[in-house]
């Protein structure tokens, strides 16, 4: 689910604001930001993506601001432009544009987008700048304005993580690092850091043993085609937390060459590819969405790797399984994506409280359907990019209880919940300067 996040460019801000406000309005109405960005003209897309990411990270603060500055909600097109401009003016991180530029360009955008509202937007933005200190203080006294997540989400994180909840919510508003996975068939992470340095790009090799010396973090993000060897399959973009999956499943030479492996929810293909980079496997990449499987095939082609790619619902094995048991199964289950909201800031505004229970039910159905396909002595790795316990430890505890004693055991190397926090980075051996990683849950279960 990773997105490359370019820096905010400066030209044509009024046009970027127009498209960015459309994106914010679409997300508020329930549409995915990925879907919306795909419809933006290609030449505008990087700037609109960066601007909309920024606006969605600070949408809670901007919404609280707008309600104080204009208690009567404006029409959706006007409101979306207004909160987008307020998010750019919010002192939450280094301002991407000068204040006068934001006001001037927002008014210029309004003259094209909603001419009758241009004066209104000018007045609201200028009032905010005049009264900023008092308004910011008032907004930060509200949960939505301070944490920039829906109230139900804040309550859920507080319930699941009573000690870490504030750090988790605030950390989710930070820009994520751009982390690379060096193809183990083609080179080492240390050597690739040297190649980047020769190109003038600063990068750090993550020394976490769980990453096998193949994870590299860039000091500054860049378009993927500027990475040396990307087009040739020498490197991919993948967060460090996600890079743990393949090595957990393969273990210390546990899987023999030719082992039969299922990646049950394979799209977009990052974990499928890493499994094949690390071992010679007879791998089936399965996904219920044929369109998303195109991305898996494209990834494998770029990396010069081979797998059987097939569309099918993992909960209905009779429709696609040939009856031969698997030595290992990776179940990267559908989830709320609550652990990766730094990369997908629209997720927090798209999800509803009821989604957790609905997705937990799907996860339980997937575990129930796939477990019989695993050979005795085989291992199933359950993964979810969520920090909600209902999609992690609670889910696996219930699954093991349903299996009963003696049917399975939780492998000791199972990390459990990996939280995007400094403490977690230190515990994982990342060092004091390690960047925050995504939130994940991993449980490695062996069939006895």
How would you sum up this structure, described in words?
The chain has 448 residues and is an alpha/beta fold. It has three domains: 13-145, NusB-like (N-utilizing Substance Protein B Homolog, Chain A, Orthogonal Bundle), CATH 1.10.940.10; 178-237, Alpha-Beta Plaits (2-Layer Sandwich); 244-447, 3-Layer(aba) Sandwich (Rossmann fold). Helices cover 44% and strands 14% of the residues. It has helices at residues 13-28, 33-37, 45-57, 59-69, 76-89, 99-113, 118-130, 132-139, 143-147, 151-160, 165-171, 189-198, 244-250, 270-278, 290-303, 347-350, 354-370, 393-403, 422-427, and strands at residues 178-182, 203-205, 215-218, 235-237, 259-263, 281-287, 308-311, 326-332, 374-384, 408-410, 416-418, 440-447. The chain is globular, with a radius of gyration of 23 Å. The two termini are 33 Å apart.
């Amino acid at each position: 689910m990773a997105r490359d996040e370019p820096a905010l460019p400066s030209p044509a801000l009024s046009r970027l604001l127009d498209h960015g406000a459309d994106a914010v309005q679409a997300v508020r109405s329930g549409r995915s930001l990925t879907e919306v960005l795909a419809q933006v003209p290609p030449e505008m897309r990087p700037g609109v993506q960066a601007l909309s990411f920024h606006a969605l990270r600070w949408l809670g603060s901007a919404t609280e601001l707008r309600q104080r500055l204009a208690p009567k909600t404006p029409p959706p097109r006007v409101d979306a432009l207004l909160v987008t401009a307020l998010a750019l003016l919010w002192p939450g991180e280094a301002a991407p544009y000068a204040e006068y530029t934001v006001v001037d360009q927002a008014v210029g955008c309004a003259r094209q987008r909603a001419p009758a509202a241009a004066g209104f937007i000018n007045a609201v933005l200028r009032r905010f700048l005049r009264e900023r200190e008092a308004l910011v203080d008032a907004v930060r006294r509200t949960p939505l304005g301070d944490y920039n997540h829906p109230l139900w989400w804040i309550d859920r994180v507080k319930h699941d993580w009573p000690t870490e909840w504030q750090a988790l919510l605030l950390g989710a508003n930070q820009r994520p690092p751009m982390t690379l996975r060096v193809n183990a068939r083609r080179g080492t992470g240390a050597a690739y850091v040297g190649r980047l340095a020769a190109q003038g790009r600063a990068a750090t090799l993550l020394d976490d043993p769980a990453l096998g010396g193949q994870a590299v973090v860039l000091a500054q993000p860049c378009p993927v085609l500027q990475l040396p060897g990307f087009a040739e399959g020498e490197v991919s973009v993948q967060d460090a937390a996600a890079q743990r999956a393949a090595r957990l499943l393969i273990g210390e030479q546990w899987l023999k060459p030719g082992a039969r492996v299922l990646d049950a929810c394979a799209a977009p293909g990052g974990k499928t590819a890493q499994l094949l980079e690390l071992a010679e496997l007879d791998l089936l990449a399965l996904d219920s969405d044929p369109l998303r499987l195109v991305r898996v095939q494209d990834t494998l082609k770029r990396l010069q790797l081979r797998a059987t790619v097939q569309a099918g619902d993992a909960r209905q094995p009779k429709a696609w399984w040939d009856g031969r048991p698997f030595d290992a199964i990776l179940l990267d289950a559908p989830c709320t994506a609550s652990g990766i909201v730094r990369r997908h800031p629209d997720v927090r505004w798209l999800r509803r409280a009821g989604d957790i229970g609905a997705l937990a039910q799907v996860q339980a159905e997937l575990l129930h359907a796939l477990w019989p396909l695993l050979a005795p002595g085989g291992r199933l790795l359950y993964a979810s990019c969520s920090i909600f316990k209902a999609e992690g430890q609670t889910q696996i505890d219930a699954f093991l209880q349903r299996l009963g004693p003696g049917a399975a055991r939780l492998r000791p190397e199972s990390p459990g919940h990996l939280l995007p926090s400094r403490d977690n980075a230190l515990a994982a051996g990342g060092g004091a300067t390690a960047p925050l990683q995504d939130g994940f849950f991993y449980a490695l279960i062996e069939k006895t």
